[in-house]
Amino acid sequence: MKNIKILTLALTVSLIAFNCSNDDDNTMSMEEPVLDFSGTYAQEDQMGRPAVNTVFNASADKDAFNVTTPADQSAAFQSKFEANLLNLSPAYADGGMNALGQDAAAFTGLLATDVLNVSLDGTTTFFDGEPANTLSGRALADDVITVELLLIFGGEDFSENPGLSNDNVSENDKTFLTSFPYLASPH
Hints:
By secondary structure, the protein is mainly alpha-helical. The chain has helices spanning about 1-20, 50-55, 60-65, 70-90, 105-110, 145-155. It has a domain at about 50-160.
């Protein structure tokens, strides 16, 4: 029995010694990596206004929307967005408007150009209760989806269709940082 234990120990040590290597020649460099941006790139997605493509485009149009230049999006997609909005929301029936004073054509013209507007001389927010500040930028804590639901279903004073006008997510699951990069670490 003693010989078996010695033989097992000898085999284990020889396997460990055989499988270990001396990789001292491959030391890690602390230099910054050289980034290579050569090549051909293609735009795959855009999300200036989250959920717009998801809600207003049919599956067949989603990829085309993502690669269309924002300046060309309204001409290509506004009429489809308007038809979908009128099918989705009774708030726009019979010429109804949203809280921004926009009818279905004006609102979908705004949404069909998927950009994130930024106010350079005023409040920067997705919505802060003041219609004049709506879609003038976006802070991390802005409840973007609820604002979009309110503008789609809420009517002129956000009171129509209350069951459809809130995603019921009132805050981020983690507190944002007070300095760059501002986003909380992942779970």
